[in-house]
Specification:
Blueprint lengths: L1 H14 L2 E4 L10 E5 L6 H6 L6 E6 H4 L2 H9 L3 E3 L6 H12 L3 E4 L17 H9 L3 E8 L6 H6 L4 E5 L12 H24 L3
Parallel strand pairs: 1-7, 2-5, 2-6, 3-4, 3-5
Antiparallel strand pairs: 6-7
Helix pairs in contact: 6-8
C-alpha cells in the first residue's frame, strides 16, 4: 500500500501537474467524511494523493469495475454504488467504514460534471453525517480532465487544481426532510465557496 500511495503521488502531482490550495484539515485519527465535486474518473486518485490516510471512496459501480483500475479500488476498500436506485448495501458499508474510524470520500453530485457549474447535491451525505455525528470536510476540483472520458483522463497529462476547506458544521439534531435539505445546502455552499476562491486564482 505504501508503494501504491507513493506511485499515486507521482502520477497525480507530477504527471497531472496538481496545484493544491489550502491545507489538509482532517485529523490523523478518527472518522471523517470528505466531500468534493466530481469532474472525472481521476478524482479519487487526485484527492488521495494529498491525504496521509487511505480514503474509502463511494463510487459508481461502472467505474469501480473498470479492469485497469479495479484492483486499486479493491485494495483501498472503495465502495461500489449502484446508480439505478437507492443502494442500501453501499450505505451500510459506508456507515461501517465510519464506525471503524475511516475517512469516507463522497461525490454528492452523484455524477460527473459536464460543465463549469456544480450539480445539485443528493442528501445521502447529510443523512450519514447527521446520523453518525461525523465531521464533514469539503474539497473542490477543477482542471483539464473535466469532460474527458476515463481513458483520456487517466492516460493523457492534465493540469488539475485541488482546493481544500475547513470543517462544515452541521446541525445533527434531526434527519427530517427540512433538516436534510438545510444540511445538504450547507455542504453545497462549502464547496461553492472553494469554487469561487479557485476561480479567482490566476490560470
Amino acid at each position: 500500500m505504501r508503494a501504491l500511495i507513493a506511485g499515486n503521488q507521482l502520477f497525480t502531482q507530477v504527471y497531472h501537474r496538481l496545484e493544491i490550495f489550502g491545507q489538509w484539515q482532517i485529523p490523523d485519527t478518527g472518522p471523517a467524511i470528505l466531500v468534493s465535486n466530481h469532474i472525472s474518473g481521476l478524482d479519487p486518485l487526485i484527492i488521495q494523493s494529498v491525504s496521509p490516510r487511505v480514503i474509502v471512496w463511494m463510487m459508481a459501480r461502472e467505474y469501480y469495475n473498470v479492469k485497469m483500475t479495479n484492483w486499486v479500488f479493491r485494495l483501498a476498500e472503495s465502495i461500489p454504488v449502484e446508480r439505478t436506485g437507492r443502494d442500501l448495501a453501499s450505505t451500510r458499508a459506508a456507515m461501517r467504514a465510519l464506525d471503524c474510524g475511516r475517512i469516507l470520500g463522497i461525490f454528492p453530485e452523484g455524477k460527473i460534471e459536464t460543465g463549469a457549474d456544480l450539480i445539485p447535491f443528493q442528501t445521502g451525505v447529510a443523512m450519514m453525517a447527521i446520523k453518525t455525528g461525523v465531521p464533514v470536510y469539503p474539497a473542490y476540483l477543477d482542471g483539464t480532465a473535466r469532460g474527458k472520458n476515463m481513458f483520456r483522463a487517466f492516460l493523457f497529462s492534465n493540469r488539475t487544481r485541488l482546493s481544500l476547506g475547513t470543517r462544515i458544521k452541521l446541525d445533527t439534531k434531526s434527519t427530517d426532510k427540512e433538516s436534510l435539505e438545510r444540511a445538504t445546502q450547507k455542504i453545497f455552499d462549502g464547496i461553492a465557496a472553494l469554487k469561487r476562491e479557485s476561480d479567482r486564482q490566476p490560470r
